[in-house]
Design a protein that fits this description.
By secondary structure, the chain is an alpha/beta fold. The chain has helices at about 25, 30-40, 55-65, 70, 75-80, 120-135, 180-195, 200-205, 230-235, 245-250, 270-285, 295-300, 305-330, 375-380, 390-395; strands spanning about 1-10, 40-45, 90-100, 110-115, 140-145, 150-155, 215-220, 235-240, 255, 290-295, 335-340, 355-365, 385. It folds into two domains: about 1-70 and about 225-395, 3-Layer(aba) Sandwich (Alkaline Phosphatase, subunit A); about 90-220, no CATH class.
Length: about 400
């Protein structure tokens, strides 16, 4: 028996007037999802425990079967695991975004325009982060390059700070959201001085791209300790993702990370490569379980673009789910697939919410006669609801 999760990050949304009262998921053409939903099981699942922030960290831990109340120690430490940062028990990890701030005024008066600096390439980001590290790195503070705009700062000792995710305050003045920690705030302000006139940013602006003109710290936490996925569930698991957070969760859970060339966490990622990697993991490489994560719907939600969010959902359906199902069907293997978001990222809000999300579970051996399509509306109408997201994995693996 083979198992797969196809995770469309931030895929859930709200009904939109522009779409005739439908959500982007409901409006999108998703024949592969709908074909599975017609003979599968759909319902709602609450992936964010009450009182916890609706981040992709807590949500994906839930979907993978780890109760965030027990296992969550912060977002950045998980990403640090992914990029091989040697963390000690007393270290504090921070996510270090490269962001785009407005040009005018003092630092505190600037407005955050883009949390991803136009989804800057890893190569360009590495050059800019090096310029920052050359000035600001010390025995206490050490910078590490991640992927695209997502990077890491390690502080030797101290305590985690309360910090605001930059995607939560888009188009707002940053003064009220700057760190109370004077050293962190000072580094952010000094990064503006380093980056705002950097030749690479001048080139980007000349090309009509957003400059990566400041660093932004958030997601602080301590070294995580996850139990092995294989020991927990008895399945040998693999992760297919372009995002350091998911790769870090996989490292912590002793799963195998599968690197797909051209996968970048954006809309124009290597969808076909991800589908092929998942099929190979299950059918050639001896894995029992594969988790395929797609970041694009979340990024398009943060950008406030329902058009591009629909496109991302349709790409997930036609270029990842459909070919994976085709490969599994051709193999003759019995299999179960779950399709779901980790959390909603409504384009109206441009940030995450903690609302329950729709899930779909298909079993190649137990086709039901439901006739429904897969979207928020039909999942809610099904009457099925899993209140603790970390229980979904047991449902998929039939370990209830």
């Amino acid at each position: 028996m083979k198992y797969a999760v196809i995770l469309g990050d931030g895929m859930a949304d709200e009904p939109l007037r522009e779409l005739g009262g439908k959500t982007p998921l409901e409006y999108a053409k998703t024949p592969a999802m709908d074909a599975l939903a017609a003979v599968g099981r759909i319902g709602m699942v609450r992936t964010i425990p009450e009182g916890m922030s609706p981040g992709s960290d807590t949500a994906n831990l839930s979907v993978l079967g780890y109760d965030p109340k027990q296992y969550y120690t912060g977002r950045s430490p998980l990403e640090a695991l992914s990029i091989g940062v040697p963390m000690e028990e007393t270290d504090i990890a921070f996510r270090c975004n490269l962001v785009t701030l407005s040009q005018e005024g003092d630092y505190a008066d600037k407005v955050i325009l883009d949390h991803s600096s136009g989804e800057i390439s890893t190569e360009e980001a590495a050059e800019l982060l090096k310029a920052v590290a050359d000035v600001l790195q010390s025995e206490t503070y050490q910078f590490y390059t991640g992927t695209s705009y997502r990077h890491c700062l390690i502080r030797k000792g101290g305590s985690a700070a309360e910090l605001t995710p930059p995607h939560d305050i888009l188009d707002q003045r940053i003064g009220a959201y700057l760190p109370e920690d004077e050293e962190l705030r000072d580094m952010m302000e000094r990064s503006w001085e380093i980056l705002s006139n950097h030749p690479l940013n001048a080139k980007r602006m000349k090309e009509g791209k957003n400059p990566a003109n400041s660093i932004w710290f958030w997601g602080a936490g301590t070294k995580p300790v996850l139990s092995s996925f294989e020991e927990k569930f008895g399945k040998k698991g693999a992760m297919v993702s372009a995002v350091d957070l998911l790769k870090g969760i996989a490292v912590g859970a002793s799963m195998t990370n599968i690197t797909v060339e051209g996968a970048n966490g954006g809309l124009n990622t290597n969808y076909e490569g991800k589908a092929q990697a998942a099929a190979d993991a299950l059918l050639k490489d001896g894995f029992d379980f594969v988790y395929v994560h797609l970041e694009a719907p979340d990024e398009m939600g943060h950008q406030g673009s329902y058009e591009r969010k629909i496109q991302a959902i349709e790409y997930l359906d036609g270029r990842i789910l459909a070919p994976l199902v085709k490969s599994l069907d051709a193999s003759g293997e019995d299999y179960r697939i779950a399709v779901l978001p980790d959390h909603p990222t409504p384009v109206r809000l441009r940030t995450h919410t903690a609302d329950a999300v729709p899930y779909l579970i298909f079993d190649s051996r137990k086709k039901r006669q439901g006739g429904q399509i897969y979207c928020e509306r039909t999942a809610a109408a099904s009457g099925e609801k899993i209140e603790r997201g970390c229980e979904l994995m047991k449902v998929l693996l039939e370990q209830e």
